[in-house]
Write a structure and sequence with these properties.
The protein is mostly helical. 83% of the residues lie in helices and 0% in strands. The longest helix has 56 residues, at 2-57.
Length: 153
């Protein structure tokens, strides 16, 4: 009888150990998800900061971007290429935020703020012209739907 009782106690303790391990694993996964969301948000801020730094450090580039935002046709071929690269980088950051949101790796509510901010910032004639001139073909279809909806407002 003692051997049976010992085996039963060992089974119970083993079951409790498994439950504790599963709970701990769940806690660790939850913490990892929080850390991933925070890291992704910081990465998006860093990418946006890099774009803004280009404009802060180079007033001539900033002036050209302002000119291109209003009228793409007013840019020289070189300026147009620079404007395209700048716009491409901006749309890439927006798409990155979109994909992080789609995967659930952004903090709650972050996507709406990012998307609204990019929609407002890029909803200008020059960006529309680039987007409709083929830039829309280099991004995922589900993301292009987001941009198209923004531009349709």
């Amino acid at each position: 009888m003692d051997l049976k009782k010992s085996a039963l106690v060992a089974e119970i303790l083993g079951g409790i150990g498994i439950i504790v391990s599963i709970l701990y694993l769940g806690f660790e996964i939850s913490e990892n998800n929080k850390n991933t969301r925070t890291s992704n948000h910081l990465a998006l801020q860093e990418l946006t900061g890099q774009i803004n730094s280009l404009l802060i450090e180079n007033p001539a580039l900033a002036e050209m971007i302002l000119k291109g935002q209003d009228d793409l046709a007013s840019l020289s071929d070189i300026e147009r290429m620079q404007f395209y690269a700048f716009a491409d980088r901006s749309f890439n950051v927006w798409e990155t935020a979109f994909l992080m949101n789609k995967d659930g790796t952004l903090p709650a509510g972050t996507w709406d703020l990012w998307s609204d901010g990019y929609c407002e910032a890029l909803d200008l004639p020059g960006y529309h012209a680039l987007w409709n001139d083929g830039m829309n073909r280099v991004f995922r279809v589900d993301f292009t739907d987001v941009v198209n909806a923004c531009f349709a407002k």
